[in-house]
Amino acid sequence: MFDYAHSTTSTHLIPQPSDLRLNPPESYLLIQDFLILTCALLYALCYFFYTVRTYADRTCAGTPLYMCTTMAYELYYALVMTSPTARFERWGFLVWFALDVVFVSVAICSAYPRAAWRRMVGVLVVGTVAGMGVLRWLGTLWPDEREQVTAYWTGIVLQVPISWGSLIVLVQRGDTKGQSLEIWITRYLGCFSAYGVFWWRYINAPQNWAYVNNFWSWFVILFTLFPETIYPFVYVWAHVQSRKKRGVVANGKVKHS
Model-level pTM? Predict the structure, then answer.
């Protein structure tokens, strides 16, 4: 009876060995699983919405070359952070990587001239390999089980240019091309779910996750959430500005806008 259910009761996503040695209750691991899956789903949707909007507008909100950093992150931690027997964890990271590749491909082909394609692909490949090398080097500087220390810090730092860059592009261009509120809400909630994974770990086993609760951790988190929080208000402003531009052109008051 319930043989299959019993065989899966000990299967959880990225359980930290130091946590397991403390014999945590099942609820701790289940909530951690929920937060990890929520984060994965939100960012997968975010990549999808980015791809759709970039293709529709023929405009990329920022440079796709930055994606070599996230692709390096996803490939590297698919290898070192997942347990050897956990295929689901590894495939989860690889799905993220595949979505990045799709987005980058659409962005390059839709928003840039053909003459630039080869150079951009070359930069992305070299950047991804170099990024994996940097992550490996950081893991040797701050060794940790499954390299969670470097995964945490590099993860929250990589989000900073994305959050601020999206806001700055709105202001500079005065339009919403390449961006949408669907992208923002999945990215915004994705930040909270990603932070939530580590904060859930910290409040339950602070001795294993002390680096989550310090000045620089709070600084990076708040520095990231500030542009994300005001983003929808700036988005509405940019949307109004773009409609005014289209209205002026439609009325023939200016020939170029």
Answer: 0.88
